[in-house]
Specification:
With about 290 residues, the protein is an alpha/beta fold. It folds into three domains: about 10-85, Multidrug-efflux Transporter Regulator, Chain: A, Domain 2; about 90-165, Methionine synthase domain (Methyltransferase, Methionine Synthase (B12-binding Domains), Chain A, domain 1, Orthogonal Bundle), CATH 1.10.1240; about 175-290, Rossmann fold, CATH 3.40.50.280. The protein has helices at about 10-15, 20-30, 45-60, 65-70, 75-85, 90-100, 105-120, 120-140, 145-165, 190-195, 215-225, 240-250, 280-290; strands spanning about 40, 40-45, 175-180, 205, 230-235, 255-260, 270-275. It has a five-stranded parallel β-sheet, with helices on both faces. A two-stranded antiparallel sheet has the order 1-2. A hairpin with a 2-residue loop joins strand 1 (about 40) and strand 2. It starts with 9 loop residues before the first helix and ends with a helix. About 40% of the residues are buried.
Length: about 290
């Protein structure tokens, strides 16, 4: 009797797993992650498919490439999840750093663009972009990287992430989330990376760029009908506390404010994300509850 198989359509599977419908189709078509039978003109997934897809999503979020794990048995996937061990792209990061040291713009651009085309967005951000920028920051503090080099790599990464964001296709009616930084805060890679990942969690990102006055953020949230505002704070000289207070006072009570970065002040009802990994959980919660 097929163990009381309960069929799910792809939209329901997307909501249950936190994986966009486009990504589900790609994992099925390109990698054979699951093979649900067709029911009429659509595919019917069952509970086992849903549980397998959640395993795969969690492993991808830890940095594993979907291409290397898609056909592995469920038991092996569970074992991998228990062990941890994300994919290691440290060699790529070292090559990017060597290109940066040589001011080789063409090589940097080609290498970053190729990795963005090959890796899922979550893996690209967590195993390439963030490790690269952490090392660049550390070298800058040791005066091993110049301001010009830091600006060059930041610009390249922003271009690649911006391109990925522009081609993302949120589901119609998906909850809207605004991504920006407060006035005076020019560093926006974190919110740009978050905006790039939002469609995969069933949300519709609105990336406004950096350094917006509080009144502009409030107005954008009201006019767009956003369900949340994500604010990145990294510069200690920015009057973030005052701006957050103004934003909270002006936002409708149902609009959430999320803060990421250096948050060393009283933040009221704002949600503080202490680590970038937390944003995925909040994305999925908002996609279900909004």
């Amino acid at each position: 009797m097929d163990n009381m198989r309960i069929p799910y359509r792809i939209g329901a599977v997307s909501r249950l797993t936190g994986i966009s419908t486009d990504t589900l189709r790609a994992w099925e078509r390109r990698y054979g992650a699951v093979a649900p039978p067709r029911g009429g003109r659509s595919r019917d997934y069952d509970q086992a498919d849903v549980e397998r897809l959640i395993l795969l999503r969690r492993l991808v979020e830890k940095g594993h490439s979907i291409g290397t794990i898609a056909r592995r048995p469920d038991a092996e996937l569970r074992g991998m999840l228990a062990e941890g061990g994300p994919a290691d792209n440290s060699a790529i990061v070292q090559k990017l750093l060597a290109d940066l040291e040589d001011f080789d713009y063409a090589a940097l651009n080609e290498r970053i663009s190729r990795m963005a085309a090959l890796l899922p967005p979550v893996e690209m951000v967590r195993t390439v972009i963030f490790p690269l920028m952490r090392e660049v920051g550390a070298r800058w503090h040791r005066e091993e990287v110049t301001v010009a080099q830091e600006h060059m790599i930041t610009s390249l990464i922003q271009n690649v992430l911006g391109t990925l964001l522009s081609i993302s296709r949120p589901a119609p009616g998906a909850p809207k989330v605004i991504f920006t930084t407060p006035e005076g805060e020019r560093h926006s890679l974190g919110v740009l990376a978050g905006a790039m990942l939002a469609p995969g969690a069933g949300l519709s990102p609105i990336y406004l760029g950096p350094a917006l006055p509080a009144k502009e953020i409030i107005q954008a949230a009201r006019r767009s009908g956003a369900h949340a505002v994500v604010l990145q704070i990294t510069h200690s000289s920015v009057d973030a506390a005052g701006q957050v207070r103004k934003i909270l006072e002006g936002l409708p009570s149902h609009v959430e404010l999320w803060l990421g970065g250096k948050v060393e002040f009283e933040h009221g009802r704002a949600l503080v994300l202490e680590h970038f990994s937390e944003i995925g959980d909040q994305f999925r919660r908002l996609a279900v509850t909004a």
